């Protein structure tokens, strides 16, 4: 079995990573989230119930799994508390098997306020969870880490300094109202900290020393990575494999024997603003949205939908050096007579074969499509490769040829048991309960 498995989003997030991580967690002892925060919404259907996790690693739903919130994450203590409480009510206790890095930064109420203000001015369509401002404070050296909470005087002066700064921005720059109260923020932060204090520690050295098997659970997707993605229409962390080392605090060499898998939908979606070369604004886009139930797990926003962009997917394969792909939601394409896939871009009369960095170019490109015949048969809930129509297999082979990596598994519905292995990963077992 691959002792270190990394599962990442290969598109603009919402690829269905939650279900895949849940499925594969059975084989892993430790599941690690290492970037982002409660902007993620990982949906799992477990025992017939829908669970959406924002901060906790999805693997924590399995009682044998130790969950890790590593240093690259930004943690909203209010959300964390609610999530732990929600799981407790469902009979899942995880406090004794959760480790949170003392180097992780906090998302504070004033970060959520700033997120809202920035969005008003020049919005990119964030989740309004305070993620961008929390990382701004981190990299601007104004952040508060969990390790800072033990020193109450220091915490108080950090909060005072931050609140004064945010108040100024709010009043002087945005002429906006706020209800920031330093004492209330200090007290609630401290209270919440005391309730989870025992879970906090040096998780990087735990991960470095452990002999147990590790699954790294990415959030968002490669095209939302702050460096590799469609900047500035991205999230504020490295949501591709580029973030593995700094997000976990583990040296790059630690990952040389890791197996990396990208999760991609059989078509493309994105939420929020930003370039989306294969977006379908008309009837076909609406059909994909309806059939795919494409509404955000965190914000409920309708997702923009379009054909599979193989230039973007191949770029994601390169950036992450994926060993393979897991393809989700193939069944959404079941009723399309023709299915298009983007195999190039045209820009000012020239053909581009590579995903460009420039926003100007991205705004001016036109996708070049290859049209494939639809299979017009149900793949929903398929459990065996022999259940797949030949044209659905052709679609998968086309993706493999174009990206140069194998499609390892198909997810054929939201339930745990709805999947097909196309090429089994050595030693990975999956039961369907
Ligand atoms: P933020 O991460 O809330 O700052 O949002 C930045 C961009 O990333 C916006 O376009 C969001 O819609 C997008 N985004 C953030 N998290 C997710 C996610 O989990 N799935 C899909 N898109 C996301």
UniProtKB/TrEMBL annotation:
Compartment(s) of residence: Cytoplasm
Keywords: Coiled coil, Cytoplasm, GTP-binding, Ligase, Magnesium, Metal-binding, Nucleotide-binding, Purine biosynthesis
A molecular function GO annotation: GTP binding
InterPro entries the record matches: Adenylosuccin_syn_GTP-bd, Adenylosuccin_syn_Lys_AS, Adenylosuccinate_synth_dom1, Adenylosuccinate_synth_dom2, Adenylosuccinate_synth_dom3, Adenylosuccinate_synthetase, P-loop_NTPase
Binding-site list for substrate: 297-303
Pfam families: Adenylsucc_synt (PF00709)
Top EC group: ligase
Co-factor: note: Binds 1 Mg(2+) ion per subunit.
Residue ranges that the Swiss-Prot or TrEMBL entry lists as coiled coil: 70-97
Pathway info: Purine metabolism; AMP biosynthesis via de novo pathway; AMP from IMP: step 1/2
Catalytic activity: IMP + L-aspartate + GTP = N(6)-(1,2-dicarboxyethyl)-AMP + GDP + phosphate + 2 H(+)
GO biological process, one term: 'de novo' AMP biosynthetic process
Residues that, per the record, bind IMP: 14-17, 39-42, 127, 141, 220, 235, 301
GO CC annotation terms, alphabetical: cytoplasm
EC number(s) on file: 6.3.4.4
List of residues binding GTP: 13-19, 41-43, 303, 329-331, 411-413
Catalytic residues in the record: 14, 42, 138
Annotated SMART domains: Adenylsucc_synt
The protein's required cofactors: Mg(2+)
Main subcellular location: cytoplasm
Subunit note: Homodimer.
Family as reported in the entry's similarity comment: Belongs to the adenylosuccinate synthetase family.
Function: Plays an important role in the de novo pathway of purine nucleotide biosynthesis. Catalyzes the first committed step in the biosynthesis of AMP from IMP.
Protein name per UniProt: Adenylosuccinate synthetase
Organism of provenance: Aquifex aeolicus
Protein's gene: purA
């Amino acid at each position: 079995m691959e002792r270190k498995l990394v599962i990442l989003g290969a598109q603009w997030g919402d690829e269905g990573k939650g279900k895949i991580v849940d499925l594969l967690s059975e084989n892993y002892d430790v599941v690690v989230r290492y970037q982002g925060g409660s902007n993620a919404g990982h949906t799992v259907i477990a025992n017939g119930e829908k669970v959406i996790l924002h901060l906790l690693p999805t693997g924590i739903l399995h009682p044998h799994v130790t969950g890790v919130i590593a240093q690259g994450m930004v943690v909203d203590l209010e959300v964390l508390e609610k999530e732990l409480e929600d799981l407790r009510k469902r009979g899942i206790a995880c406090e004794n098997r959760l480790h949170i890095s003392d180097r992780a930064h906090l998302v504070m109420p004033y970060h959520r306020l700033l997120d809202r203000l920035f969005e008003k001015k020049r919005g990119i369509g964030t989740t309004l969870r305070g993620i961008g401002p929390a990382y701004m404070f981190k990299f601007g050296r104004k952040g508060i880490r969990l390790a800072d909470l033990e020193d109450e005087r220091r915490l108080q002066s950090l909060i005072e300094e931050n609140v004064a700064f945010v108040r100024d921005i709010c009043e002087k720059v945005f002429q906006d109202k706020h209800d920031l109260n330093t004492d209330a923020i200090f007290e609630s932060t401290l209270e919440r900290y005391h309730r989870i204090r025992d879970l906090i520690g040096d998780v990087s050295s735990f991960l470095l020393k452990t002999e147990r098997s590790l699954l790294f659970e990415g959030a968002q997707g490669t095209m939302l990575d702050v460096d590799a993605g469609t900047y500035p229409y991205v999230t504020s962390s490295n949501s591709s494999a580029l973030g593995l080392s700094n997000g976990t605090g583990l040296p790059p060499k630690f990952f040389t024997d890791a197996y990396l898998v990208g999760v991609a939908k059989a078509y493309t979606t994105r939420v929020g603003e930003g370039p989306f070369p294969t977006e379908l604004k008309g009837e076909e886009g609406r059909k994909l949205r309806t059939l795919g139930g494409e509404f955000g797990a965190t914000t409920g926003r309708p997702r923009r939908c379009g054909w599979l962009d193989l230039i973007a997917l191949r770029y994601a394969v390169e950036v992450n050096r994926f060993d393979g792909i897991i393809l989700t939601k193939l069944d959404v394409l079941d009723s399309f007579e023709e299915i298009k896939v983007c195999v190039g871009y045209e820009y000012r009369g020239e053909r581009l074969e590579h995903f460009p960095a420039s926003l100007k170019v991205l705004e001016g490109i036109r996708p070049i499509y290859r049209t494939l015949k639809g299979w017009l048969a149900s793949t929903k809930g398929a459990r065996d490769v022999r259940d797949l129509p030949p044209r659905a297999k052709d679609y998968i082979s086309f993706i493999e040829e174009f990206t140069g990596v194998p499609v390892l598994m198909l997810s054929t519905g939201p339930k745990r048991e709805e999947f097909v292995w196309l090429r089994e990963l050595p030693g990975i077992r999956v039961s369907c309960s």
